[in-house]
Amino acid sequence: MERSLYERLGGAAGITKIVDDLVEAHLSNPTIRARFLPYLDRPDVVAEVKRHTCDFLGTASGGPECYKGRTMPDAHRGMNITEEEFAAAVNDVLATLERNNIDEGSRAEILGMVSSLKVEIVDL
Questions:
Q1: Dihedral over Cα of 69, 106, 14, 42: its sign
Q2: CB 3.0 to 4.6 Å from 65: which of 19, 38, 58, 94, for a disulfide?
Q3: pLDDT tens across 8-62, in order?
């Protein structure tokens, strides 16, 4: 029997590590860094974003987590995220997964999920 995507990501602990590494990747990415810098003075906000991201990824990958955050359009409305910024974030996701030794098939599944959200995130 094939392991679920959630299991291939390492379960809750693996997803938490991936999300922590992803936030660091975004902070290092010159294309999207400025969007995240204001939150560095608000550790409570950073923790909430990380928790929501872990819950979202856990839910989307078949884990027991239950995402209760805002919808993608509601979370990104008014941010005017560009195609370039979205692409930079996706590249960070894929690079972070690779650095965490997530297999190619699982990375492709995540890419499909993230790509499907583009219409709910870009230019809102």
A1: negative
A2: 58
A3: 999 999 999 999 999 999 999 999 999 999 988 999 999 999 999 999 999 999 9
Give the angle subtended at the CA of 10 by the CAs of 109 and 75, to the nearest 5°.
Answer: 60
CA atoms within 13 A on the CB side of 16: 7
Q: Which of 78, 60, 82, 61 is nearest to 69 (CA)?
A: 60
- Taking a C-beta distance cutoff of 8 angstroms, is the pair 15, 59 a contact? no
φ, ψ of residue 39 in degrees (nearest 5): -80, -15
In the chain the domains, ranked by start, together with CATH numbers, are 5-121 (1.10.490.10)
